[in-house]
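Reopening this ticket.

The earlier resolution said the output was attached, but the attachment link was broken on my side. Pasting everything inline this time so it's all in one place.
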Amino acid sequence: MFKGGVYCRRWTYEGKNRKAWGIRYSVNGGPVKREIVADTKEAAEHELDKKREDYKNRLLGVAEGKTLQDVAKPYRDYQKAKEHDLVTIEARLKNLLAYFGTTALEDIEEKADGYILARRKDGVTNGTINREIAVLNHMLHLAWRRFKMLRHRPFLERLTEAGPRNGN
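Inline output:
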């Protein structure tokens, strides 16, 4: 939720009365941000309306038209910066992008069951599917939290895995 208002700041400098208009707003109950933005009230109201419009656009889905393919490059860059094993990640991404590559980010959650069935038909174990779903979950989390491409955080359930191996 976006809350905001306009305020006037008055002061005296070198014997002259001065004033400037600012905006004060908060997003989702977060910290209040204050900015001096204009010399007139109308200009300050216009700036506040722009901030409100930016918030609405983000809320209504920056991800419109964004696919998993669009998240793949920033995800790779993120993992590279964290110095993670890119060979393993690339192998998992290859399978995910082959199935979900052109799927809209909002639709991935509902198509996950089809992915699981397709991987099972390929003879892949639940453990391997879980590792791939973990990468997909992480990509969607970053798309939501860091890249601001999603309105909410989707979450995909993992499968039950076989117990530990016997050492016989």
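Reporter confirms the inline version is readable. The beta strands are 2-13, 16-27, 33-38. The first strand starts at residue 2 and ends at 13.
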